[in-house]
């Protein structure tokens, strides 16, 4: 009898994974706590720098997660907060016409348009992207080229701009948005994707560099790529050439990510060098959890290993939220592996955490 009970426990563990270790109510509670803390501290200066402009990419990443939380929340407080930011800025993108960072706030505009269907929310973005399609940047992707960031020649750019193009394609049904994005995304991937490791270099400068004998793949940069892939795929029609292209990258990265996840549940700041970077980093790790859980929820990623990875990851991320709702261990603005600590946060870390929570909640609430 004892043997039968033991076998039953093993079977249930394998069949259902570890999702039962996460309580749906607790997921919503910690998400609300983090969202409310961040709204109260939106004008703080992080890491001894001035408060971010409302349309800055840092805040844009926050709005991505906040939009997902607003959809889950039990009142319109969060939607109203996001709408207020859009109205105050006349639904404009940020300052630089070509720079991907300054397109990222378009993610929020698209999310709000889907809820309210108010044309003014998307018109400035559509107008600017029309200009870009008619006057595309011709610069090379080399880092030393003048105006090199007029194209997506750093990996985190693939989170900032391409999903906005995918949103416009999905919302309008106009193929031109997808065509432009698809060609530019392929150019970046051919330039920065390591086909052996199935990870992206942050930019050209890291291709031939090594850190203590390991290739340098920045955790947060790859986290942003991976989350962006999930959002792009959400906007595409299955079985199309574009969907299959992005799905192939997504699956390759997914396999790599569960292979290199640390025993504590996070991912190292230098993804292949966890022994040299033991400190957690919650912004990149949260986006990995978001992307992996999205794949589970959409029945793309199957098997116990994926569910185990996201459960361990989410439990780790939630443990880094302090009693007030501040998410710690967020690496400051940078472009390479660095430092993080329990008392350091940033708005984009909150956005990543809320994105992860939105998919975790769907996973555990459906069980």
Automatic annotation (TrEMBL):
Q: Which GO terms describe its molecular function?
A: hydrolase activity
**Database matches in Gene3D superfamilies:** 1.50.10.10
> Which controlled-vocabulary keywords does the entry list?
Hydrolase, Signal
Q: Name one GO biological process term.
A: carbohydrate metabolic process
Entries under SUPFAM superfamilies matching the protein: Six-hairpin glycosidases
- Any signal peptide, and if so, which residues? 1-21
Write the protein's name: Rhamnogalacturonyl hydrolase YesR
Q: What is the lineage of its organism?
A: Bacteria, Pseudomonadati, Bacteroidota, Flavobacteriia, Flavobacteriales
């Amino acid at each position: 009898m004892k043997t039968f009970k033991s076998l039953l426990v093993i079977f249930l563990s394998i069949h259902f994974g570890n999702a039962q270790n996460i309580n749906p109510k607790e997921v919503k509670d910690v998400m609300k706590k983090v969202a409310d803390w961040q709204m109260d501290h939106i004008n703080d200066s992080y890491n001894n720098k001035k408060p971010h402009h409302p349309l800055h990419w840092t805040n844009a990443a926050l709005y991505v997660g906040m939009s997902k939380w607003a959809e889950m929340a039990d009142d319109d407080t969060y939607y109203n907060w996001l709408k207020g930011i859009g109205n105050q800025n006349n639904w404009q993108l940020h300052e630089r016409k070509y720079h991907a960072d300054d397109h990222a706030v378009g993610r929020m505009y698209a999310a709000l348009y889907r809820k309210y269907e108010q044309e003014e929310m998307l018109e400035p973005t559509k107008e600017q992207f029309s200009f870009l399609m008619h006057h595309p940047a011709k610069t090379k992707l080399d880092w030393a080229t003048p105006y090199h960031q007029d194209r997506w020649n750093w990996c985190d750019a693939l989170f900032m701009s391409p999903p906005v193009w995918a949103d416009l394609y999905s919302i309008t049904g106009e193929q031109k948005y997808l065509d432009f994005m698809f060609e530019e995304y392929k150019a970046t991937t051919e330039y920065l994707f390591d086909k052996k490791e199935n990870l992206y270099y942050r930019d050209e400068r890291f291709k031939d560099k090594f850190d203590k004998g390991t290739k340098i793949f920045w955790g947060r940069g790859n986290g942003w790529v991976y989350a962006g892939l999930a959002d792009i795929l959400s906007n595409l029609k299955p079985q199309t050439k574009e969907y299959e292209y992005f799905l192939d990258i997504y699956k390759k990265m997914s396999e790599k990510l569960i292979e290199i996840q640390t025993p504590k549940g996070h991912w190292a700041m230098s993804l292949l060098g966890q022994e040299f970077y033991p400190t957690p980093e919650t912004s990149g790790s949260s986006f990995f959890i978001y992307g992996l859980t999205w794949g589970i929820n959409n029945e793309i990623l199957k098997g116990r290993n994926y569910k185990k990875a996201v459960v361990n990851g989410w439990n780790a991320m939630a443990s880094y939220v302090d009693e007030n709702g501040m998410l710690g261990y967020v690496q400051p603005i940078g472009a390479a592996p660095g430092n993080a600590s329990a008392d350091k946060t940033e708005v984009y870390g909150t956005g990543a955490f809320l994105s992860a929570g939105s998919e975790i909640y769907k996973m555990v609430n459906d069980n």
